Structures are given as C-alpha cells and as structure tokens.
Amino acid sequence: xxxxxxxxxxxxxxxxxxxxxxxxxxxxxxxxxxxxxxxxxxxxxxxxxxxxxxxxxxxxxxxxxxxxxxxxxxxxxxxxxxxxxxxxxxxxxxxxxxxxxxxxxxxxxxxxxxxxxxxxxxxxxxx
Length: 127
Description:
The chain is mainly beta. The protein is 0% helix and 50% strand. The chain is built from no helices and 13 strands. The strands form 3 sheets. Strands 2, 4, 5, 6, 9, 12 and 13 form a 7-stranded mixed beta sheet that branches. Strands 1-3-8-7 form a 4-stranded antiparallel beta sheet, with no helix packed on it. Strand 4 and strand 5 (46-51) form a beta hairpin. The radius of gyration is 13 Å and the shape is globular.
C-alpha cells in the first residue's frame, strides 16, 4: 500500500522554526518529485515548495522564499521541509504529495497535480 505520512507540525511562536517530515512507505520516493502544500481555514490549498526526484531542483512560493528549505534523504525515503522565521500567516494544515510527472522544463511545479497525498499535519503560528 502506497502511503505518505507527514509529521513535525505543532504550535510555535512567531519567528520560530519547525521541521516537517514526509515519510513514504510501500514505494521508493527517489522516483518521485515531492511537493508541499498547505491549506488555511477558509482558503484554497496552495503550493509551498517542491523538490525534483533527484533533488537537483527546488521551487518555492514567493511567500516562503528565504524562510523555507526543502531537502530529501532518499536513503531514508523521507523529504523534509525546514521552516524558519515563521509567521502567523503560515498557519494551516501542511500536506506532502508525490508525483512522477510534476516537472516542467526541469522545474517541479507547485500545482496540485501530484498522484499521492499524505493526511496532513497542523502547523499553528501564534503567540
């Protein structure tokens, strides 16, 4: 059974940091591009970051550039999203997703055109 499981969410003060993990079971992540998406209450799901299957290219939404970093450890079948300088507007449920056709001209995309999705982990940024 193909499964993605996110972890690492929680409550953090503004300016704080979190590291989200996306672990795969039932398949090898190294064949897939991985995207991170988030959804705040009352808002549509938005793409946050992604990384190509090889890890050679990454992509970030303008709202998180310079604050978030996506890395992958294919040996551990896991992708991480490091989030620094968190803001209240970063609050939401964060999802990871895997897809094998999610690159355009070598760059992974931030549209929800991924095949497999995790169940999400809650991130709340508040004092």
